[in-house]
Design brief:
By secondary structure, the chain is an alpha+beta fold. It folds into two domains: 113 residues, Fumarylacetoacetase, N-terminal domain (SH3 type barrels, Roll); 292 residues, Fumarylacetoacetate hydrolase, domain 2 (Alpha-Beta Complex). The protein is 17% helix and 25% strand. The protein has ten helices and 25 strands. The strands form seven sheets. Strands 6, 7, 8, 12, 13, 15, 16 and 21 form an eight-stranded mixed beta sheet that branches. The chain starts with 30 loop residues before the first strand and ends with a strand.
Amino acid sequence: MTDETHDPALVSWVASANVTGADFPIQNLPFAVFRRAGEAARIGVAIGGQILDLALCGRAGLLPHREICGADSLRPLMALAPASRSALRRSVSELLRSDRPERPELLVPMAAAELELPCTIGDYTDFYASIHHAENVGRVFRPDNPLLPNYRWLPVAYHGRASSIVPSGTPVRRPRGQMMPPGGDRPRFAPSEALDYELEVGFFVGPGNPLGDPIPIGRAEEHIFGFCLVNDWSARDIQRWEYQPLGPFLGKSFATTISPWVVTAEALEPFRAPAPDGRELLEYLDGARNRERGAIAIALEVWVSTSEMRRRGLPAARLARSHFADLYWTPAQMLAHHSSNGCNLRPGDLLASGTVSGAAPDSAGSLLELAAAGEIELPGGEKRRFLADGDEVILRGRCERAGFVSIGFGECRGVIT
């Protein structure tokens, strides 16, 4: 539930955190792993345009969990019980409040830091939780049967490739793969000609569960540490040829980009929303808390900047807007289902929502959906059905609610090479 860290009256002694519309006001306080040139990686907290260096704070005795504050990964922090990590977040909030002594020596400008993956990700599971996306894609691949009969009963997912998850800003090399040309009778091996993005939200597992011990829906949110933006790049021509009978493989595993700042579950408490209603659920996927506040109101956007647009000085163009609260399945249901057979989830595992699309034409979270009826025209006259070399895709997310300070996720960027 909300507490003093969400108070809209709070301001920070870090001036850039108090700018209206800033992604990282004192009410947010997301975590990341960063490094400066020639220095070791360490944990930081975003505050405005600065990073609070938790290693320095720990050595100065300003925060609890000194050993965790000095780590080079968020995994030890993710493994903490919810009460312990909430206590650390409150301590960070108190340290940064405007009525506390200013400690500029604890800050690192974001412009002087390189952001890395939050931790070494052990396992990555990608869900298919947007019913609008499932229906849109189903019509492309199965026009007569777009939504398979299991969709309304369980959160569909596949096990992705953790080794190719990269932080925002990492170039994405166009993959090569096997595909069947339209009307052909023999596949060919070539660079993908149907490279796509997927607008998603991911969440990192917290403490996790022992093998054989499922996490009940009522306890699922205790095992969700925080959220990030995810671009699950997809080579549609490779995917179309390989996905039957066992699902995605090389059409997905070449790269997945995530935003480096992990917005904690605690920071998102003011932006909770009811789960979709009117559904018949099996008992293990149903719970009072999930019904009342299992969804999260995150407004999402996709922007694109082509090499030609940058050459001509044109700004990035927004392609779509969608909303995380429109998902058919909530994060708690995804996690509870994932562990329902006894599968053990571990601190730092990443679960992603799948493409977040809405009912409106401009709310589709992929080009496969947006360009289904024809090419999209961009500012300057360029047209796209899929991504060209030099295209940069930018994902953004923001939470807003009356009576609270809005917070953002930063950006999730990747350029095709």
